[in-house]
Amino acid sequence: MHGSSTLIMGTAFRCDIKDVWVFVESLRRHYQGEALLLISSRYPALAKYLVSRNVVPVFFDAPYWMRVHVQIGRYVRYGEILRGSTRFFERVFLTDVTDVLFQSDPFADPPAGQLLFFMEHPTRTIGSDQMNAMWVNQIYGPRGLELLKDKPISCSGTTIGAHQPLLDYVDLLLKHANPEVLARYPEYRGHDQGIHNYLLHTGALPLVQTIPNARHVYTLGAVPLEEIVLGPGGTILDPQGLRPPIIHQYTYHPPIAQHVRSAFQPPPAAVPGA
């Protein structure tokens, strides 16, 4: 148990209990430290459920009026929380929520480093992936994309760091998130990943360490379905048969999503506020 030395922060804006069930229930199987989720005050049942699982609901209604997508807007609130904290956290985990599964304590034996970026499947590059190329091009233009096109992809949906290095990363990401530029693309989401990879591959974050896929975090989106190994009890194993602490993007493959969710059937009568 890590107590106040660790913190998990995620965003579940416009989500309900069913959307966060696997995240929260798997988290509390393995980790009893501090965790909070940014949520909308329009989902009171979700707030009650989170409190029942000792996850702090932090109301974050500004995205209803923000000019940028909540995937960028969430970093504003993360920065405020970290900057305003009266405690120093040895490790902070910024994470997506609706497609994340915990298989062990996320802070147990993490890779060394003050700021950890987790890589996706090595076969894809930024230039060869339509979405990643688009995000970089929309933020940095053709020159930025040319600079990054042959680089591997790091997923911005899972990042671990010490308190100050992670805050520095959040602040720098937001400096690159020009609202005047982002407002041109209201129908798009994911620009944080374009910035995330630009900061990584231009050397803007000297403390960053890149961690190969399936080492601590296993990001499945670009992993061929036939390469994903299913374990007992809804678990997912890496190609060597080991169980990574964190699984991300399991919802990208319907058979994998079914495998996971079958192990987390929510009893509706037992969910507060449901």
Describe the overall structure:
There is one protein chain. The chain has 8 helices and 12 strands. It has a 7-stranded mixed β-sheet, with helices on both faces. A 3-stranded mixed β-sheet has the order 5-12-9. A two-stranded antiparallel ribbon has the order 10-11. It has 274 residues and is α/β, with parallel strands linked by helices. It is globular, with a radius of gyration of 18 Å. It has helices at 17-30, 44-52, 70-84, 130-148, 163-176, 179-182, 191-201, 254-261; strands at 6-11, 34-39, 56-59, 91-95, 100-102, 115-119, 154-161, 208-211, 217-219, 229-230, 236-237, 246-248. The protein has a single domain, classed as Alpha-Beta Complex (Spore Coat Polysaccharide Biosynthesis Protein SpsA, Chain A), CATH 3.90.550.
Q: Write down the domain tally.
A: 1
Order of helices and strands: EHEHEHEEEHEHHHEEEEEH
Helix content: 25-40%
CATH architecture: Alpha-Beta Complex
> How many DSSP-defined strands?
12
Straight-line N-to-C gap: 30 Å
Shape: globular
Keywords:
single chain, 274 residues, Spore Coat Polysaccharide Biosynthesis Protein SpsA, Chain A, 7-stranded mixed sheet, 3-stranded mixed sheet, 8 helices, 12 strands, 34% helix, globular
Give a short synopsis of this structure.
With 274 residues, this protein is of the alpha/beta class.
Give the secondary structure arrangement, pairings included.
Blueprint: E1 6-11, H1 17-30, E2 34-39, H2 44-52, E3 56-59, H3 70-84, E4 91-95, E5 100-102, E6 115-119, H4 130-148, E7 154-161, H5 163-176, H6 179-182, H7 191-201, E8 208-211, E9 217-219, E10 229-230, E11 236-237, E12 246-248, H8 254-261
Parallel strand pairs: 1-2, 1-4, 2-3, 6-8, 9-12
Antiparallel strand pairs: 4-7, 5-12, 6-7, 10-11
